[in-house]
Write a structure and sequence with these properties.
- The chain has seven helices and no strands.
- It is mainly α and 190 residues long.
- The protein has a domain of 122 residues.
- It comes from Exophiala sideris.
- This is Protein kinase domain-containing protein.
Length: 190
């Protein structure tokens, strides 16, 4: 929003007259046909700022998922300890980092208003499902000094699922409420 204000995109369009620098014609924008017309560049800038400020939550959600995708390799049993070379603590560090990032993902997901849930794409829901699977793997993984009880105490999986269910119920209630308050157009074929 600050960027929009700095660019002056929040102000109403006013006809531009001569300024104190009137003799420097090359500083003035080209004349417009109408004083209420915005240029394409102004519209793009306005929509860009609006998009970035409203999608910050979604960007952080996707960023968290990318980190989960990077560190979830440590949960897979198909990689032997010898695959980590001379760094025996690498897998353990990756497991702790993965747990932290999973926690961050669900905190970011919980920060999003349930009113936005119906704007999620299938991809976003599949990300949430995938991170849930990684969390469940972290809660049952045993080996390499990893304590699954620590994972369970860090993120309570059943409580997290219950919280998501409650938010989905809220989203459904909001959707039903908006449908009731939206005037429906009469069909000419009735």
């Amino acid at each position: 929003m600050a960027l929009m204000i700095d660019l002056g995109l929040n102000k109403a369009i006013s006809p531009r007259g001569k300024t104190a620098l009137g003799s420097m014609a090359y500083f003035r924008p080209p004349d417009r046909q109408s004083s209420t017309e915005r240029t394409l560049e102004e519209r793009r800038a306005f929509l860009g700022v609006l998009y970035v400020t409203s999608s910050q939550e979604f960007l952080s959600l996707h960023y968290s998922f990318l980190q989960v995708f990077l560190y979830e390799v440590a949960v897979h049993d198909t990689i032997a300890n010898t695959g980590y070379g001379a760094l025996p603590m690498t897998r353990l560090k990756m497991l702790f980092t993965c747990l932290d990032v999973v926690k961050q993902f669900f905190e970011n997901f919980g920060a999003i208003s349930p009113a936005h849930y119906f704007n999620f794409t299938y991809f976003t829901w599949s990300l949430a499902g995938h991170v849930s699977v990684v969390l469940s793997k972290l809660c049952i993984f045993s080996g390499d000094s990893w304590d699954p009880n620590f994972a369970r105490s860090t993120i309570d999986f059943p409580a997290m699922v219950h919280e998501m269910q409650e938010k989905l119920k809220q989203a459904a209630a909001l959707a039903e409420q908006s449908v009731r308050h939206t005037p429906q157009a009469q069909s000419p074929y009735r």
